[in-house]
Amino acid sequence: MSAPVTDRLVSLRRDLHRHPEPAWREFYTTHRLVEELRRIGVDDLAVGPEAYDPADRMAAPAKEDLERWVDRARERGADEELLETMAGGNTGVVAVLERGEGPSVGLRVDIDALFIEESTDESHLPAAEGFRSEYDESMHACGHDAHMTWGVAVLEAIKDSDFAGTFTVFFQPAEEVSGGGCPMAKSDYCADIDYFFAAHVGLDHPTGEVVAGIERPLAMCHVDATFEGTSAHAGKAPNEGDNAMQALGTAIQNTYAIPRHSDGMTRVNIGRAEGGTASNVVADEVNVLGEARGETTELMEYTKERLVDTLHTAAEMHGCTADVDVVSESPRADSDPELVDVVADAARGVDGVETVTPTADFGASEDATFLMERVQEEGGYAAYLIVGTDHPTSHHTSTFDVDERSLSIGVDVLTNAVLSVGGER
């Protein structure tokens, strides 16, 4: 029997770090989590479509984009039965402990990685100590390897405690594309939760600081658009073409001209554009990836509607058509003050915690807000906390890393918080 997770936090985190898998491709990651959860022993274990309705997923990739990730997971020893269950990219797992009468408590941790090639520089600790990503095109550049480690270790700690009630841990896929929060929030596992926690490492808060609850996460949406025109010889007869590249240029310019709103902050961006075939051909197809954000869900909706209209109008101006798809989105949800106080009290006295900050603006977006929103709408309380870590470079960079002292801090804070709201046997 392997040692308790709390005795091997670093080794588990490093193992997960070595095998980073992006959204809806977390096949080996899910397998590895299930291994740990089966070793601990839980009362209900739901993988992929057992945990949510696949039809509720957002930003799911095409089947052909999944095959090499399945093969890679299989080569590394992933359980074949689990791979069959996860067919089509239905990754992730929900684990439940039933401990008699008492409140229902939930914890959500995210499990996906990013399409970033990890640094090989000797000054980068994962490279120096041999746990750099084994996949050149992907990396845990946002700390989700630490989050998963917390989830497994907290589950084990609660099982070994006097907690009374139901404890559910959501190991959620596809956070980076805002794709997995919605289906898990709509599932039966998210029904009637009394207290719900989500957590993130770092975010420019140093090791030793705990933010008990975030405020003002930005509602957001991801948009994928394809401009379709007509090709022509750019020198001989450019007038015979309908130029998708011109439509793109107009779309980009006009996107950044979308008026800001008097009710609060909005954001809009075109982050990627790709298309055309050659310098002497009028481009007949261009693909664009963009996003809209807002300080509230309503402000995001305002910006999203105008972004979609702008893309369609730009296409029409140049005789083209635009196929615009809102591939994913997430609402704003704030931490409840009542649960923020619980987290703050739980953090005080934890070894390694030097500063407890009640609240802080999040400044980015998160699809854990789907789960928070459902819990709050059904009368429960939710809090999204931050466990600080000294990261040498920013999140989403090739040299991102976490201070592994934050692993035990996060486990202790989350365990104390869950026990504080749970019943006692």
UniProtKB/TrEMBL annotation:
Protein name from the UniProt record = Aminobenzoyl-glutamate utilization protein A
Name the cofactor(s) required for activity, per the record: Mn(2+)
Keyword Manganese listed? The answer is: yes
Instruction: Determine the domain of life of the protein's source.
Output: Archaea
Output the PANTHER family linked to this UniProt entry. PEPTIDASE M20, PEPTIDASE M20 DIMERISATION DOMAIN-CONTAINING PROTEIN
Q: Which organism's genome codes for this protein? A: Halogranum amylolyticum
Q: Would you kindly state one Gene Ontology biological process term found in this protein's UniProt entry?
A: folic acid catabolic process
Residues covered by the Peptidase M20 dimerisation domain: 223-314
Alphabetically, the GO molecular function entries are: dipeptidase activity; metal ion binding; para-aminobenzoyl-glutamate hydrolase activity
**Which free-text remark accompanies the cofactor?**
The Mn(2+) ion enhances activity.
Instruction: Give the binding site residues for Mn(2+).
Output: C142, H144, E176, H200, H396
Q: Which GO terms describe its cellular component?
A: cytoplasm
Keywords (A to Z) from UniProt: Manganese, Metal-binding
